[in-house]
Amino acid sequence: MLRDLGIATEWIKMDPVDHFHLPDGYRFEVPADFDRYIAKLKTEFPHEAKALDEFFAFARNAYLYGLLYHVRGQDTGWLAEHSGLNLKETLEKYFGDHRLRLLLCADCAHWGSRPDRTAFVADSMLRFAYFLGNYYPKGGSQAFSDELGRRLEERGGHILMSSEVTRILTRNGAATGVEIMAGPGRLKRMVRVHANAVVSNADLRSTIDKLIGRDQLNPDYLRPIEELRPSMPCFITHIGLKDIDTAVLRSAAGYHLPQWDLNEVVTSGFKMFVPTLFAPEMAPPGGHIVVVQKLTDVDYDKIADWPAHKAAVERDILCNLERLMPGFQEKIVVCLSASALTSWRYTRNYKGAMLGWEMSPEQFGKRRPGICGPMRNLYFTGHWTQPGGGITMVVISAMRVAAAIRAGFETRDVAGPVYTNASAVES
After folding, report:
1. Closest among 422, 371, 393 to 231, alpha carbons compared
2. Does residue 387 have a cis bond before it (omega within 30 degrees)?
3. How far apart are CA 184 and CA 163, in angstroms?
4. In the structure, what pLDDT confidence band is assigned to residue 325 with cuts at 50, 70 and 90?
């Protein structure tokens, strides 16, 4: 698909896909090849070999039927029968070994919720996507974004940076364009862009409250949205290092899980990723970059001192890294962290939510707000809409919106769509 778009970004294959460090010191590397992965699990857990076959056959069905329904729109009834399952109860049904159960939900924090509040179908769709090919863009993820932007402009699109979408324009119950504050600093001015379709991948609450206005919407549409739970925010720390042993970083990379409780470990643990192991040119010679992700279950509205909160979580992360790699803190050149508040400031995601609404069984797929907005010519993409969060789900929502817009445009001669993103606010 990327080649069809002319995307020329170079990709570096990630194999192993990930590393898991369990509480008892056990370390497991996930091979990029699915058959090798299953074989390794059976070697490590021979007493669970039969259960592994049964579990992954079930998970593969969830993945395939999920794609069939969410991409092709074909409902076989399988998803409806199993849509109420969560990841925790499914693992406990199939496996008795607590180490294997933890291993199979160790990356659940990456979905922004606990295993007992993560739909099994959602987890399966995201998990199997890794084995289609797990790659890192050379030069970092920004290189991929830059290339996408370049190809969009080559095809006649326009990208407006450092500008704030202040309103979605409407008339007679239909979206007709957007109002934007554009320009540098004090020279910002209001600009109106008219179009026959508006696509928002912004926070859904912001889209409703700020860009549209509740007074324009039916209370019956708003009521279910008020009841939806957001995913947890993810605390992120970026660290620049100098003169540290690459082998030490390679050995410590991955998920660190300090306890066996499947629910509690998603917030007590953390993931350490080292992009310079794949793209060393991202740091100066002799340097490395470490990115730490830690899911935080915070009461957003009750945190009065955000700087103190950020300092405390960052301090905890650095202490853990020092414990894993003695002398680590002496190698730090720069350290920058982002809390839930930081995430909200840069993305406008509700309370800094990591993946939009939580992907619990009652909030996944068709139980999420649909891609068609509450008025004509308004569409939603991203992790606030169907089917859910994560790259796979977001791509599906974008494909469905593109198909819906194209189907409408084929019947009339109109201008192209306008895409709005509330994260494109003051830089």
Report:
1. 393
2. yes
3. 9
4. very high
